[in-house]
Design goal:
31% of the residues lie in helices and 34% in strands. It has helices at 2-17, 31-40, 54-62, 79-89, 106-111, 117-124, 151-162, 170-182, 245-253; strands at 20-25, 46-50, 71-77, 95-100, 129-138, 141-143, 146-148, 188-193, 198-210, 214-215, 219-220, 232-238, 263-268, 270-275, 279-281, 284-286, 289-303. It is globular, with a radius of gyration of 20 Å. Its cofactor is Mg(2+).
């Protein structure tokens, strides 16, 4: 059995190293990481594709859609960067590697125990890809991690807007913003429904639609989510009173919201959400409105 496993291991490495490797990265990517990539790829087929702006990551990934051979695309950045690369890869046969180089790295937290970028890269060269789901939000918009439309969306959108004007670490930005927003509570009327039933209607504090597990730099959103179960995992916390604030704040900080009294959990393959609030998808801000969310099973080949 050991010799079989050893043979399989070398077959995987040989297969991976004979692929074309496309590294999609920002101009300010760690020089140490780039040096590691260049030295590891000597004699192999690879490209370094630098982005000009965030949406350029999607355009670069999209440019490989017609490539007949399977390529391995590396999204080297944070959650918004990964979001853009995924939106350029869906419906292709290529493989995705996520190299955490952001401040939140929430999707990476769902798939790695160690977020060290160099270690993740080196480990990926020894691994095969496995299929995972994505959530289709609109015809040309996909979510790989979390869509949210409650306090969590407000906080994510504020941090995202202010990320170029503040020097505080992003996890602290999230914490400070959460404290500010939760003490100035605002609830948004939200409707969640399927073809034949109403799931939730009312004001929400927290409202997440999850493929991954985390948002906001490590706060848990998908307590029961799975990347490959073909389902959208939904967590909702309804309207609360001011006297309940400490209880729910503690639940948010300690990742125990699912144990609180007003926590609701649902799983569906196909669901609509209607909100008058700007939503947040994988760390990026999107318009209010009605989103038809569909779990697209095995939509992406991910190395993890």
């Amino acid at each position: 059995m050991e010799s079989v496993n050893c043979t399989l291991f070398y077959v995987i490495i040989d297969k991976v190293m004979n692929m074309k490797h496309i590294f999609i990265l920002k101009p300010n990517t760690s020089k140490e990481l780039i040096s590691c990539i260049v030295s590891s790829m000597q004699g192999k087929r690879y490209e370094l594709r630098y982005t000009k702006d965030l949406d350029d990551a999607r355009k670069i990934a999209l440019s490989y859609q017609e490539e007949k051979e399977v390529c391995r695309l590396y999204a080297i950045g944070g959650d918004g960067f990964v979001h853009k690369v995924v939106n350029g890869m869906v419906k292709s046969h290529h493989e995705l590697v996520v190299i955490p180089q952001g401040t939140g790295n929430d999707f990476a937290r769902s798939i790695y125990k160690d977020l060290d970028a160099i270690k993740v890269f080196k480990d990926s060269l020894k691994k095969e890809a496995k299929p995972i789901d994505v959530i289709q939000c609109r015809d040309d918009l996909y979510c790989v991690n979390v869509l949210c439309c409650g306090l969590d969306a407000d906080v994510g959108n504020i941090v995202n807007t202010n990320r170029k004007t503040t020097i505080a670490p992003r996890i602290l930005q999230y914490s400070f913003t959460i404290l500010d927003k939760i003490f100035h509570l605002k609830f948004y009327p939200t409707e969640i429904y399927t073809y034949n039933k109403d799931i939730y209607q009312g004001n929400v504090l927290i409202c997440t639609f999850c493929n991954g597990h985390y948002f906001g730099g490590g706060y848990q959103a998908g307590y029961y989510s799975s990347l490959d179960d073909g389902m959208i995992d939904m967590s909702v916390v309804g309207e609360i009173s001011k006297k309940e604030l400490p209880y729910y704040l503690k639940g948010l900080i300690t990742n125990t919201l699912h144990k609180t009294k007003k926590f609701h959990h649902f799983k569906e393959e196909d669901v609509w959400v209607k909100t008058s609030q700007y939503v947040n998808i994988d760390g990026e801000k999107y318009d209010p409105g009605t989103y038809h969310l569909k779990c697209i099973h095995n939509a992406i080949q991910l190395v993890y």
